[in-house]
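Teaching assistant here, posting this on the class forum so everyone can see the example we discussed in section. The complex has two components, and the goal was to see what a joint structure prediction looks like when all of them are supplied at once.
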Amino acid sequence: MKHIITALVENKPGVLARIVGLISGRGYNIETLNVGPTQDPAVSKMTLVVPGDDHVLEQVTLQVGKLIDVISVTDVTGARHLDRELILVEVATDSVAQRAEVLDLAALFKAAVAAVTERSVTLQMVGSLDVVADFMLLLKPCKILDLSRSGQIAVARGEG
Amino acid sequence: MKNREVDQTGARSGAQCVVDGLERAGCEVVFGYPGGTVLDIFNVLCLSPIHFILSRHEQGAAHMADGYARATGKPGVCLVTSGPGATNTVTGLATANMDGVPMVCITGQVALSAIGNDAFQEADTIGITRAVTKHNTLVRSADEVPAAIAEAFYIATSGKPGPVLIDIPKDVQRQLTAARPPETISLRSYNPHAAIQPETLAALAEAINRSERPVLYVGGGAIAANASGPLTEVARKANIPVTTTLMGLGAFPEDDPLALRMLGMHGAAVANIAVNRCDLLIALGARFDDRVTGKIAEFAPAAKIAHIDVDPSAIGKSVRVDFPIRGDAREAVEGLLPLVRPNEHAAWRAELDAIRRKYPLKYARSETALQPMFVLEELDRLRKGRGIIVTDVGQHQMWATQFIRHLRPRSFLSSGGLGTMGFGLPAAIGAQLARPDELVVAICGDGGIQMNAQELVVAVEHQIPVKTIILNNGHLGMVRQWQQMFYGKRYSAVVLGSHQRPANERIAHAGEPVYRPDFVKLAEAHGMRAARVTWPAEVAPTLERAFADPHPWLIECIVDPEANVLPMVPPGAAVSAMIVD
């Protein structure tokens, strides 16, 4: 299954390479990766989505936690959390009917229209791991011209 | 006299900060090799009281620092230049990293402005060594040097120890700084000490008190944590049989009746059978390596497993664990000592004693053919419990675990995890420097010694009295053994003598078989005393002579080329598949 792993790390050169190297060195593919600053400029937050066996991902998480520049690491998959990903997708609309279909789909997923041309619509969609997966599935029959995904970002939620 | 690079304002160079940092950390010896990007550090190092050992290859320097660290528990330090100097240390760093050995490696780097330009002797040292160090860091300003050195020693020696590399550009070494080392070190992202929860220890003690067939399985972590004393007390109080890993040899005295000796692929039959039959396996600073467990599904099938380890990622990595305890091995056994109740475990011990008698370690004794095991038995007899045994990697290494009794921690030094041929001689030199009054014996094969034979001269010029014993069987023996047992006796690339080489090596040789090099001449060319032993009767007098002599020696023993290491659990197999004869 897909695991969402978040890590707080020192904002220093090489930390990203260290984490990515550790995971890829064990033969695991990182599906998405997002890095950004936090409220503390010396600390960055990373969110990784890694598909894999639970036991193996537990190991990977522990080993990432061992890295000297990693302040904390959590596999939030099984815990209360919020996760979101931003998608920009340009879909071909060769006819008015096709455009209407795409706009219908956009409305269902609360996706915004970011740009329109004669032959395409670009949608901006935000959703959790599951919702994004559903959206991508429903987009399948359409002709996708370009797709950019930010990678999942996640925050833990307190109990209650 | 100006012996420090300090100006009137108290500012000092980055290079001076390095040397000051080493002195402050208590470093007594540095092993290394100079080059263009570390000239500034060497320029001030030679004014320091720190003893400098010039190796003849940077890999040798790294293994010397490693041997020094294993023999003492103190971090070994090496200092090399950028590019090839740094890349030559990679095997040494990986060796130390796998075995959790504290080391600080300082590498020169090209000037900051040249980094990334494919400058002369430039390598991405941080990128290359990231996976083989506990931590590494590129220092970008002289202001960072004092803290970087202090942190490197702290990280190398705390938690699960390991090698730390600091890469210092040449211009940073020349910059002046007023920075001073921090009084105390604390890193918010690194908390190596986890206090053990008393209730987890109480639960384990309860399990020990209920167990009828317990086994202690002790690894290198017990030695790193100086846990031998309380561990031995716990084992004796509750009469728990003890097996050790290769890295744990010496953590529990092998002359104790509770000692099962080493387990695993070439472990004692009784140790493997005990693990197979036990109802409680207590792992202390051991990591369930594949050479220990064999087929994981059939490992300790009847046992509850307790795992005490300072490294949380080691716990539950290979096997399911019923009692996970993260923490220091010494703290754990000290905590267990008052909680475990005296217990005879008479039936369990009698059962194991019978197995021990049924499967003794043995070999074909001979008056004429020199058996490598015989050499080691004689060595063990003549060393009278003294000294430090250092090995290379291969058959001789396994025989050294079997035919030498290991009685004290930090007295058997061997590359366990990485299995680095060429480790033995330089590590022995490092160990002897750390413990000058001990007998230090390097046991090597004829293959491994040639991987770092250039370091013989270091022993000679510093009069480091290491006794190097080469068990020369004319082959890469362990690979030959696998080819014999698992590859239909097709001996590919393992013959080192002139005869019976496979056709694809295209070595044509007429006349008497020749072995090259002549190791006695090789030693003598370096100014080292040397002898060759061919007959069993020559072993004891030659060893006695060398042991009594205050100079380094090399003793080449021409041994049976067909001898195999037994027992053997075939790779990936269960204990039941153990080959005994």
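For the discussion questions: Chain B is about 35% helix and 15% strand. Chain B touches chain A through 18 residues (CB under 8 Å). Think about how each of these relates to the inputs above.
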